């Protein structure tokens, strides 16, 4: 296994760096050595490590770690895009969250990242028609992490969910690439009607803490939503909205709000 891991890491710079960080961490914090070995150093790739980590976190008396691990391995093998998204999400967290000091930290400690990767496995099951198992994954993610992402939602890559507590993303929601959102964000509906009823979030959007985006509306690319806002109408590209109900209060302030993570309005009032 060690030889296999070395062979893979030479081809994957992200996993190579994670493995190096893990080796250093075992030396500096030996009491975590067992967890770091089992979660990272025993695996040849980020896909295998995530399968292990997801299965360990979501296992319960109702579903064994082994079955969940086999399901996750199957998903990663069948759809290489899941692993690509996992890498993009990892780099997004590392680059945008100053609390993330090492690439390995989200895999080990950050519930937003872990929940998102578990959702990706659940979404794969959903798209395969295995909807009951997908709902089981959704349930366990909600119970374990306090994050409720419907497996039918479509979420791009390069996503950062910071702090992540009480995130809700509905069934027909669409989230573009390179989106950042903070805790207590809701991408929800406005009633009990079925059909296409949830928001469509463009790429590069920054969503502040506690924001509620409701209904089948479109949030334009590279826009910003202030903390605590309730958004009920479409938002154009590269605008900032704030308030209850939210209104346009200015430009986005930069070309990539989700990357810059600038939560201040032009007058320096906080977004969140």
TrEMBL record:
<feature type="domain" description="Serine acetyltransferase N-terminal">
    <location>
        <begin position="14"/>
        <end position="118"/>
    </location>
</feature>
<dbReference type="InterPro" id="IPR005881">
    <property type="entry name" value="Ser_O-AcTrfase"/>
</dbReference>
<comment type="pathway">
    <text>Amino-acid biosynthesis; L-cysteine biosynthesis; L-cysteine from L-serine: step 1/2.</text>
</comment>
<keyword id="KW-0028">Amino-acid biosynthesis</keyword>
<keyword id="KW-0677">Repeat</keyword>
<dbReference type="InterPro" id="IPR011004">
    <property type="entry name" value="Trimer_LpxA-like_sf"/>
</dbReference>
<comment type="similarity">
    <text>Belongs to the transferase hexapeptide repeat family.</text>
</comment>
<dbReference type="InterPro" id="IPR001451">
    <property type="entry name" value="Hexapep"/>
</dbReference>
<dbReference type="InterPro" id="IPR045304">
    <property type="entry name" value="LbH_SAT"/>
</dbReference>
<dbReference type="InterPro" id="IPR053376">
    <property type="entry name" value="Serine_acetyltransferase"/>
</dbReference>
<dbReference type="Pfam" id="PF06426">
    <property type="entry name" value="SATase_N"/>
</dbReference>
<dbReference type="GO" id="GO:0006535">
    <property type="term" value="P:cysteine biosynthetic process from serine"/>
</dbReference>
<keyword id="KW-0808">Transferase</keyword>
<dbReference type="Pfam" id="PF00132">
    <property type="entry name" value="Hexapep"/>
</dbReference>
<dbReference type="GO" id="GO:0005737">
    <property type="term" value="C:cytoplasm"/>
</dbReference>
<keyword id="KW-0012">Acyltransferase</keyword>
<dbReference type="InterPro" id="IPR042122">
    <property type="entry name" value="Ser_AcTrfase_N_sf"/>
</dbReference>
<dbReference type="GO" id="GO:0009001">
    <property type="term" value="F:serine O-acetyltransferase activity"/>
</dbReference>
<protein>
    <recommendedName>
        <fullName>Serine acetyltransferase</fullName>
        <ecNumber>2.3.1.30</ecNumber>
    </recommendedName>
</protein>
<dbReference type="InterPro" id="IPR018357">
    <property type="entry name" value="Hexapep_transf_CS"/>
</dbReference>
<dbReference type="InterPro" id="IPR010493">
    <property type="entry name" value="Ser_AcTrfase_N"/>
</dbReference>
């Amino acid at each position: 296994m060690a030889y296999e891991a070395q062979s893979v890491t030479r081809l994957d710079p992200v996993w190579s760096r994670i493995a190096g960080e893990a080796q250093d961490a075992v030396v500096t914090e030996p009491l975590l050595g067992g967890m770091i070995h089992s979660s990272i150093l025993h695996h040849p790739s980020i896909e295998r490590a995530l399968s292990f980590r997801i299965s360990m976190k979501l296992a319960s008396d109702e579903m064994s770690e082994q079955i969940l691990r086999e399901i996750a391995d199957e998903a990663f093998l069948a759809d290489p895009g899941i692993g690509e998204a996992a890498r993009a999400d990892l780099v997004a967290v590392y680059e945008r969250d100053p609390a993330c000091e090492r690439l390995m930290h989200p895999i080990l400690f950050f519930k937003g990242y872990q929940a998102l990767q578990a959702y990706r496995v659940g979404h794969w099951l959903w798209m395969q028609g295995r909807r009951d198992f997908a709902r089981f994954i959704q349930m366990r993610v909600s119970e374990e992490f306090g994050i409720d992402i419907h497996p039918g939602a479509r979420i791009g890559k390069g996503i950062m969910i910071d702090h992540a507590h009480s995130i809700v993303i509905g069934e027909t929601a669409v989230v573009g690439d390179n989106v950042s959102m903070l805790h207590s964000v809701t991408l929800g509906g406005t009633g009990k009607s079925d059909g296409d009823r949830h928001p469509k979030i463009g790429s590069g959007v920054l969503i502040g803490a506690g924001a509620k985006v409701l209904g089948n509306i479109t949030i334009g690319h590279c826009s910003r939503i202030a903390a605590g806002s309730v958004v009920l109408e479409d938002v154009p590209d590269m605008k900032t909205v704030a308030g209850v109900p939210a209104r346009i209060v200015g430009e986005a302030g930069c070309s990539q709000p989700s990357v810059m993570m600038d939560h201040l309005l032009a007058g320096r009032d906080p977004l969140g």
